[in-house]
Specification:
The structure is a homodimer.
Chain A: H1 4-10, E1 15-21, E2 26-27, E3 32-37, E4 41-45, E5 50-55, E6 63-69, H2 71-77, E7 87-93, E8 100-107, E9 110-114
Parallel strand pairs in A: 1-8
Antiparallel strand pairs in A: 1-2, 1-5, 3-4, 3-6, 6-7, 8-9
Chain lengths: 117, 138
C-alpha cells in the first residue's frame, strides 16, 4: 500500500473515490473497489476507506467507466446482512482534465453517490 | 393541495394489462423514481427488471416498463417473486436528456437480493443529474 507521502502526492489525481459507512459515520475500511473502463480494467483494494487515484494524472480519458464496490462482503465482515450484493456506479468522463471525486455513502439498506470534485 | 395537478397529488395507476391495476399495486416489488431537482416523479423514465439465473449466472430480463407518472406498478406480481438476485435498470441519462440536461450517469443499475419472497419490497430511486440515492423500503 502507498506511504503517507505517496498518498498526498497521488491524492491529487483526476479520479478519486471514498466510501463512507453512514451507519457509523466512519470510512468503510477494507472495502474492495474495482474500476473498469468500457474497455479495460484496473483494480484497487484499500485499507482506510479512501481510495488513491484510480486513474493517475494523464491516464483518464473521456469515456464510460464503472466503479464496483464489494459492499456485501464489507457488511458481512462486520456481521451485518445487507440488501445489495455489490454496488456498481457507471459514469461518464467528458473532460479528462477535470478532477473527479466519486464518494459512495453506504448503509446496509441504502446507498448514495454523487459527483464531487 | 386540491389544485395540484392530478399527476402530482394522485399518481396514476399505470395499467400493465390487467383490468384495473389496483390489485397489482399490492404486488411484492414496486419502485418509484423521484427527480430531486424538481421534487416531482420522473415521468417517462424507462425501467427494466432482470433476474440473475443460476445456470451460467446470466441476467434474464423479466419486464420492461416506461411509465408516465414516475410511479411504477409492481414489476413482479404477487406470487411471482422468488428469492434471488435481481437488477433494476433505470434509463436516467435518456430521461435527463429529454429535459435538456446533461448528466453524469449513462444509466443507473441497482442490484439487490430478495430473501423473503412474501415480503413487500419498494425500491425508490431519487435522482438528480449528478447524484442518486436508493434504499430498501416496504
Amino acid at each position: 500500500m502507498s506511504t503517507h507521502t505517496d498518498r498526498d502526492r497521488m491524492a491529487n489525481g483526476p479520479l478519486t473515490t471514498h466510501v463512507l459507512n453512514t451507519a457509523t459515520g466512519l470510512p468503510a475500511a477494507g472495502l474492495a473497489i474495482r474500476l473498469s473502463q468500457l474497455q479495460e480494467p484496473g483494480c484497487q483494494g484499500h485499507a482506510d476507506g479512501r481510495c488513491l487515484p484510480l486513474l493517475a494524472v494523464g491516464q483518464a480519458k473521456a469515456g464510460t467507466y464503472k466503479l464496483r464496490f464489494e459492499t456485501a462482503a464489507y457488511w458481512q465482515g462486520l456481521g451485518h446482512a445487507s440488501f445489495y450484493p455489490f454496488v456498481e456506479v457507471v459514469f461518464t468522463i467528458t473532460d479528462a482534465s477535470q478532477k473527479l471525486h466519486i464518494p459512495l455513502l453506504i448503509s446496509p439498506y441504502s446507498y448514495t453517490t454523487y459527483r464531487g470534485s
